[in-house]
Write a structure and sequence with these properties.
By secondary structure, the chain is α+β, with helices and mostly antiparallel strands. The chain has one domain (2-100). The chain contains three helices and four strands; from the N terminus they run E-E-E-H-H-E-H. It has a four-stranded mixed beta sheet. The longest helix has 20 residues, at 56-75. It starts with a strand and ends in a 6-residue tail after the last helix.
């Protein structure tokens, strides 16, 4: 299982780019950048996820699972975050919360 550091970039109105870094020489050494993934959270994107009746927590769970699966597919291995996941999900939640207010 790979240890991964997520580094979210400056968020945009409709998406967030996240650098994915791993530690080929252990977590005490410098990480290397493996890829950048883009999380799309425009109103259109969120409404696509909400079609099956998901609330805010359900949509956040979807994004978390989607991010894990995407990185796993690209790394061809399971991974665990050593940092940055909470910050990344917090940015997404801040941007989509207003779409769930009545």
């Amino acid at each position: 299982m790979k240890e991964i550091l997520l580094k979210p970039q400056e968020p945009y109105f409709s998406h967030l780019e996240v650098d994915v870094l791993d530690f080929p020489n252990g977590t005490s050494a410098e990480p290397r950048k493996r890829m950048t993934v883009t999380i799309e959270y425009s109103e259109f994107d969120v409404n696509q996820i909400r079609r099956d009746g998901r609330d805010l927590n359900g949509v956040m769970e979807y994004y978390n699972d989607w991010l894990y699966d995407l990185i796993r597919a690209r790394l061809l291995d399971d991974w665990t975050p050593v940092g940055g996941l909470e910050e990344t999900m917090s940015i997404v939640k801040d941007h989509i919360s207003g779409m769930f207010e009545a």
